[in-house]
Design brief:
By secondary structure, this protein is mostly helical. The chain has one domain (3-18, 32-175). 54% of the residues lie in helices and 6% in strands. The strands form two sheets. The protein has a two-stranded antiparallel sheet. A two-stranded parallel sheet has the order 2-3. It is rod-shaped.
Length: 203
């Protein structure tokens, strides 16, 4: 029995994954042998995808606490400067304010660099997962002698047995259960002049 599927935007996934047609004449078209795969489900539900997302969440939580501690330190510095405004000379006050602004800018820059480094590490890890999944899809296509691989989102009707998504996830879980989130360079978020071990604060 055919099952109704929602029409999506994507079309054929993996013409590039399948073997070349050989030397057959162009007018000789083989009967299609089709398999269907949901790549987005694979990149969401596989063990390695969950592992990478977990690492990303842990790193993000840690950096958020570090940033919160540094922001609290800057707020304390700003409050102290306001108290000193009436007792400092204008030049001394302006010097302290410039130092404060430099520290604030350094923290802001560190946050931006860290965010970019984390995102790049996440993208690199997920690219490795995707490439491995595509190789597994290619292997299954060869095993089934399939000459057409279609993404699930493009399917309107589907006969039982054509969807290989769970098989791909199972093989991916065995082949690549985890990928380390390798941040190329993790910048320190400790702002110049601030205590190096400031405890995390609460907003």
């Amino acid at each position: 029995m055919l099952r109704l599927r929602r029409i999506g935007r994507a079309a054929v996934v993996a013409a590039s994954l399948l073997p070349a047609a050989g030397t057959a004449r162009a007018q000789e078209v083989a009967a299609p042998v089709i398999i269907i795969v949901d790549v987005q489900q694979i990149l969401r539900d596989s063990l390695v995808a969950k592992n990478i997302q977990g690492q990303m969440n842990d790193r993000t939580d840690r950096y958020t606490k570090e940033v919160s501690a540094q922001e609290n330190e800057l707020r304390r510095t700003q409050d102290e400067l306001e108290r000193q405004r009436t007792v400092l000379s204008p030049d001394a006050f302006n010097t302290k304010m410039r130092d404060f602004q430099q520290r604030y800018d350094a923290l802001d820059h560190g946050v931006q660099v860290t965010r970019q480094a984390l995102q790049q590490a996440y993208n690199d890890a997920m690219t490795k997962v995707e490439n491995t999944a595509l190789q597994i899809i290619s292997d299954i296509a060869s095993e089934r002698k399939a000459n057409l691989v279609i993404t699930k989102a493009a399917v309107l009707f589907e006969a039982p047995g054509l969807d290989i998504t769970q098989d791909v996830i199972h093989r991916l879980d065995e082949k690549l259960p985890s990928v380390p989130l390798a941040v190329a360079q993790e910048p320190s978020l400790t702002i110049p002049g601030a205590p190096s071990a400031a405890p995390p604060g609460k907003n």
